[in-house]
Amino acid sequence: MHEYYAANQKKLKKDLDHYLGLIASELEQETGQAYSDLLEEVWDCYRGELMERFPYIGGKKSSGTRNLTGAYCYVALGEVCRKKYGMDLERWGCLTTVSFQRHFDRIPGTAKMLAGMVLRTPGLVNRLLKKKDRQNAANARENPGSFETQTQKPAAEYPIIYHTTVCPLANFAKEYGYMDYMPYLCNLDYVMFGAFGVPFYREKTCAHGDGYCDFKLKRDAPIVPAWPCHGTNTDDPLL
């Protein structure tokens, strides 16, 4: 285990508890276990099977670190619930989506409104994204395998377009056998942008072997629902 993760175990367990706690009642019903007991089982999986092998991609100075550690909270949940309690993949994906939605539901409406206003200001956002491209490139030179991004030329329909060209989440999944989870983790981007009232569209992901994940914010368009999961054939209804 990299020393960064070893030193931050307390915080990482708190994050795990945050995301899982948002669906505690559903998890108890699905597994028949008290939430406190299930949390310990998932934490043991997270710490022993995932965190033990996480790549170091910049720690606190890299925003991508939180993406990696947060997304794999859900993977640890899936590993425990599927292997020990017989939960199917689509049900796990549904609960994961509900958890992430509830996470954003807790953000004050004013904060979400302001963030949405910024995201609908293409000139400012593209300048910030290009700055982030440079920061990510510098971090990747120091920590190979970190997130890398490329802001694209705006189009009439999509005034904000950027690509993730290196995704540690997908690379970790490919290396250690967690690819079944990736469509559902990628799908959480629809939850995030939808929470801020921003129309988000996507055609490609690294997880599907496309070479990059595209993030396209569309002008004057409806919000794309986060469920059913994009990239799968699921029609399992949300709770």
Task: Describe the protein.
This protein has a four-stranded antiparallel sheet with strand order 1-2-4-3. The chain is an alpha+beta fold and 239 residues long. It has helices spanning 3-7, 9-21, 24-31, 35-50, 63-85, 89-105, 109-119, 122-142, 168-176, 182-195, and strands at residues 148-151, 160-166, 200-201, 213-217. β1 (148-151) and β2 (160-166) form a beta hairpin. The protein is built from ten helices and four strands; from the N terminus they run ααααααααββααββ. The longest helix has 23 residues, at 63-85. The termini are far apart.
Give the low-confidence spans: none
- Trace the largest sheet across and list its strands: 1-2-4-3
Note the gap between the termini. 37 Å
Report the principal-axis shape: globular
The portion of residues forming beta strands comes to 5-15%
Please count the helical segments.
Answer: 10
Q: Specify the biggest β-sheet.
A: 4 strands, antiparallel
Order of helices and strands: HHHHHHHHEEHHEE
Instruction: Let me know the number of strands.
Output: 4
Structural class: alpha+beta
Query: What percent of the residues sit in helical stretches (DSSP H or I)?
Result: 55-70%
Radius of gyration: 18 Å
Oligomer status: single chain
Q: Tell me, rounded to a whole number, the average pLDDT.
A: 95
